[in-house]
Each structure stands twice: as C-alpha cells, then as structure tokens.
Design brief:
This protein has about 475 residues and is of the alpha/beta class. It is about 40% helix and about 20% strand. It has 2 domains: about 90 residues, Outer Surface Protein A, domain 3 (Alpha-Beta Complex), CATH 3.90.930; about 280 residues, TIM Barrel. The longest helix has 23 residues.
C-alpha cells in the first residue's frame, strides 16, 4: 500500500543496460524490458539527479523538443510502467498469504532413494536427512505411485495439462514401476480430460534398448546427470567400489540420443572442485556425445568439503559462462539454436516477464513424493522429516505449506527487497538456503553477485537480439511456448 504525498517524481525500481549502442530499461516491479528512446533517456537522466515536480519535468521535455501533449503522455506512460514514481511513502513489500486451493501442476515421484552409484557430492543423504529413515521403504510401490497420479489429477483444478517427473536415487532402478505408472496415468488423465507429460532424471548406466524405446514411444523427456569427458566424469560420479562410470554410460548414451525420437535429451552437469572447465565439458557433451542441450549447476554445500567450490573457482566458472553466452549469441544472430540451457532458461524468463514471488514452484504448483508417499516441497526435501507437508493418502497439511511459502516469499527476505534481480531469483533455492543457513526462507547471499552479473549478461543478449535479429526472439518465444 502507498500514500501519495505530492505530485513529484523520482526514478522507480529500474536496471539500465546497453546493447548495440541502444539504451534499455529492466522494470523490476514488472519484470519487463523496454527500449529507451531519447525522450525517455532525458527523463531518466533528469531524475537521476534528484526528484522533480510534474510541471518542471514536463517543461524540461518541452524544452527538449516534445510537444506538451507528447510530454504529458510520456510522463503518464512512464508512471504506468513504474519506471518513474510519484513521491510516496512506501511501507514495503508484504508477503501475500498463499492460496489454500492453488492448483497442482506437477509431481516429482522419487521412485527409489537407492542408487547404483556413489557420487561424492550427492545431496540424497545431506545435512537435512538421514539414510532411509527406519520403517520407510526404499522403493515406491505401484499403489503409492497410482495414488500419486490420482492426487495430482484431483488437485490440478482447471489446469489442462499436468506433469510427472520420475526421480531417485537412480530412477531406472525402479523402471518397472515407471512403466506401469505411465500407462496408468495416460488412461487416468484422458478420463479426467487432461493432458499429461513426463520426464525423468537418470545417470544412464542402466539404459537398455527396451527402456529407450519406451521413453521414446511415450515422449518421456530425459535429463542425464553427467559431468563431462572421462577424467572429469570419473572424478566424482563413481560406483561404490570407486570405479568411474563414464565407460558404462557412454555407449548407452549414444543409443539413447540416436533412439529417442520424441523429446530432447539434456545433460545436467554438476560443477565441483576440479570439475569446472565449463567450455571443455560443454564441447564434449554437446558435440562429441550429441546431447541436444547442456546445463550447468554448481555443487551446493554448507561447509568446506573437499568438493566445494571456492570464490576463485566460481569466478572462473562465471568467466566460462560468459564465453559460452557469447557463443550462444553468435549462434542466435545467425538464426541458429545453441544448446547452452543456462542462457536459454534465463532468456525464457525475461521474455515471459517473470516476476517471482518464490524461487520456483516448490510447495506451490509442484510437490515431491517420497517412496513412502510423504509429500514434500520438492524432490530435494524427500525423506527430510522436518519438511514433510503431508502424505499422499491424507493430502497436504495446509498449515505447514502456508508456513513454508510465507517464509520463502521474496518479500520476506530483507536483502532481496532492494535487489533489481529479484524478479528472476526471488532469493534462490529453498533447499540450499536450509542446508547453508538452516532456514528455507533465507536468501542465498553467497550467490547474489553472481546472479546479478549473469542476469545482466542475459539482458544484454536480449537487447542485442532485439536490435539485430528480433525475428529470432520471436521464434525462440514460440518454441518455448511463451506466445
């Protein structure tokens, strides 16, 4: 709520950037991007020096060549866009109470918490969990999985489409259940008048011709956890006896990419100490192996473990990200698609005008389901008893859900309220915040500078394409379903 005190203007919450010699404005409160013409630039420069009365601002624009009508119209337009604001008493953002009936869009089914690998940075049994709590199953049963499907369809409200992600442990250790669930869910969704899509994450070591054919036949999106060429993959993604996994994965991956005809196959790289050569990893996975897309995420850790990334390593990672972003832009300017998903995902959010109240859909449109049927905010909280939000048989505990979402709202994170990048970040991953700070509602302050720098780089990419190849932006938006 705001109270108007005077007809006097100041700059709103904006982030200015330049691309190809043109000025752009990122409107923080709207998550929108505008090109700034000469008259707009004049307003911004004037208000950067301090507040101005309405009449003084209009006179300055008239003196700069605008008609009185155009000057008034520009001021009105900039106010409506909140690029400039009337002098106000701002009481601050207040987290809105989450709606109790928010429709569910997706479930992550942790079909098993067991894995045939022993990756040294795995969060499956992290600081917020213990290994397979006593009395809880290690594998999801088909009854629990079917109940989860029914719960998803029954909680989706008027949504026309829903999604299930299969996760582990190693997902394919329970492939028989996955197959049965897809067949059941196809029929149940059709009966409910809804569309349903699927994806899974796997380490690819258990892929067979039969599995690949099923995934292709049912358009199951596949994300493979893989960290690069042999010596990097085998540094941390190892079997329990310490043997590397690359030699087992590589031929199976080639079969998967060749045989999966209906969905893109994506690689997800975990960057850790000693595994930070982003450009080399990308080259190998995209061009040598043939993944359609490759995305990167730094390992998360609350302490100084041997695999943690220090500040210098993160600086190097960002430099490589910048180099790959340049390559992504070069491709786009030629009308070609690049496979670096870290740019594609951020650009998608910028085009969509994302203005997040929460970092992701965890606890909102998305829930995780453990092998026992416990509900959690997402897959990363599976079997973390302190974050259980109910059970598939009894439904959501709305009080716990409301507490989780209220604390995780961006307006509840003091450091975020003045950050221009908050529409896309919203404070960062809930789970990482808990592991690092002991509070799911804490802002991930250790990544703030990195996120701002990366977001600014993607804004510049947007601006460059808007100037030099706007048709690519239109096609990109169409392909991502943003239009």
């Amino acid at each position: 709520m705001t109270t108007l005190l005077a007809h006097r203007y100041r700059l709103g919450e904006i982030h200015e950037f330049r691309a190809e010699g043109a000025d752009f404005i990122y409107l923080v409160t709207a998550g929108a991007i505008f090109a700034a013409d000469g008259a707009t630039r004049k307003v911004l420069d004037l208000l950067a020096q301090g507040e101005l009365d309405h009449d003084d601002l209009v006179r300055a624009l008239i003196g700069d060549g605008l008609s009185a009508v155009d000057a008034e119209g520009l001021v009105r337009e900039l106010r409506l866009a909140r690029a400039i604001e009337a002098n106000q008493v701002v009481q601050g953002l207040t987290p809105a109470a989450p709606p109790a009936d928010f429709p569910l869009q997706a479930l992550v089914l942790n079909v098993t918490n067991q894995c045939n690998l022993a990756c040294t940075y795995c969060y499956e049994f992290g600081a917020d969990k213990i290994a397979t709590p006593a009395g809880k199953p290690k594998y999801m049963t088909v009854e629990t999985a079917k109940s989860s499907v029914d719960f998803l369809l029954g909680s989706a409200g008027r949504r026309e489409a829903v999604h299930i992600t299969f996760f582990g442990g190693e997902t394919l250790m329970n492939f028989r259940l996955l197959r049965d669930v897809v067949l059941y869910a196809d029929e149940a969704a059709a009966a409910a008048g809804k569309r349903i899509t699927y994806s899974l994450t796997t380490n690819a070591t258990l892929l067979t011709d039969e599995i690949i054919q099923f995934l292709s036949d049912h358009a199951v999106g596949v994300t493979v956890s893989m960290d690069g060429p042999p010596e990097l993959q085998d540094a941390r993604r190892v079997y329990k006896n310490g043997k590397g996994s690359y030699a087992v994965m590589e031929p199976r991956l080639r079969k998967l990419i060749a045989g999966h005809k209906t969905r893109a196959v994506t690689a997800r790289v975990t960057l850790s100490a000693g595994v930070t050569d982003v450009k080399r990893i990308y080259q190998h996975l995209k061009h040598d192996i043939g993944f359609h897309e490759v995305g990167f995420a730094p390992v998360t850790s609350a302490d100084e473990r041997e695999y943690s990334l220090n500040g210098d390593a993160m600086t190097g990672v960002l430099a490589d990200f910048e180099a790959l972003a340049d390559e992504w832009l070069d491709y786009a300017l030629q009308g070609k698609v690049h496979g670096f998903t870290n740019v594609s995902e951020t650009l998608s959010e910028l085009i969509a005008g994302s203005n997040k109240s929460h970092p992701c859909g965890a606890g909102l449109g998305l829930l995780g389901v453990s092998p026992s049927g416990d509900l959690s905010p997402c897959h990363r909280f599976t079997d973390a008893d302190t974050h259980t939000l109910g059970h598939i048989s009894t439904g959501l505990d709305q009080e716990k859900r409301e507490d989780f979402l209220t604390r995780g709202h961006v307006a509840a994170k003091y450091e975020c309220t003045s950050c221009w990048a908050r529409p896309l970040c919203a404070g960062g991953c809930h789970h990482e915040a808990f592991v690092r700070y002991g509070d799911t509602g804490h802002a991930n302050l250790h990544y703030c500078d990195w996120i701002r720098q990366w977001t600014d780089r993607c804004l510049q990419i947007y601006g460059t394409l808007a100037q030099k190849n706007p048709e690519f932006l239109e096609r990109f938006a169409e392909r991502k379903g943003l239009q």
